[in-house]
């Protein structure tokens, strides 16, 4: 560890990144509170690790559902049996959904079981870069 990364006084257990780490911890605790308060939806995508895509539902049995009806502030996608979780702000997710729904390449009908659904897929390999572009577009639209 280089000396310029340490806080004043030498304490190897706590460097200047402690404040940043604390902000991250507070964000995660806020999300957990959001899950408990019903503000954050948890979606378990059992096939994401095999398909490489997240599935974002927008219709079930011919009626709006999922992203079209959510009141959540964010969605947490649990992937790979719980080994991975990805949190996406709802405004970012709705922006991505709106863009991807325009292309038949990303729309999917799921007719397994008694709940036929429609949704869009978001490639996991592109989720981060698409989210950054969405956040930038949303910010520009907000700031005019």
What is the topology?
Layout: H1 18-36, E1 40-45, H2 48-51, E2 53-60, E3 63-64, E4 74-79, E5 84-89, H3 90-101, E6 107-110, E7 117-123, H4 124-143
Parallel strand pairs: 1-4
Antiparallel strand pairs: 2-3, 2-7, 4-5, 6-7
Helix pairs in contact: 3-4
Task: Give a structural overview.
- This protein has helices spanning 18-36, 48-51, 90-101, 124-143; strands at 40-45, 53-60, 63-64, 74-79, 84-89, 107-110, 117-123.
- Residues 1-7 have low confidence and may be disordered.
- The chain is built from 4 helices and 7 strands.
- It is 38% helix and 27% strand.
- The protein is globular and about 55 Å long.
- The strands form 2 sheets. The protein has a 4-stranded antiparallel sheet. Strands 1-4-5 form a 3-stranded mixed sheet.
- The chain has one domain.
- The protein is α+β, with helices and mostly antiparallel strands.
- A hairpin with a 4-residue loop joins β4 (74-79) and β5 (84-89).
- The relative contact order is 0.13.
Spatial order of the strands in the main sheet?
A: 3-2-7-6
Helix/strand/pairing category: alpha+beta
* SSE run: HEHEEEEHEEH
Individual helix count:
4
> How many separate structural domains?
1
Compute the separation of the termini in Å: 43 Å
Task: Tell me how many strands there are.
Answer: 7
Envelope shape: globular
Estimate the mean pLDDT confidence. Answer: 83
Strand proportion: 25-35%
Percent helix, as a range, is 25-40%
pLDDT below 50 for ≥5 consecutive residues: which ranges? 1-7
- Over all CA atoms, what is the radius of gyration? 19 Å
Q: What does the main sheet amount to?
A: 4 strands, antiparallel
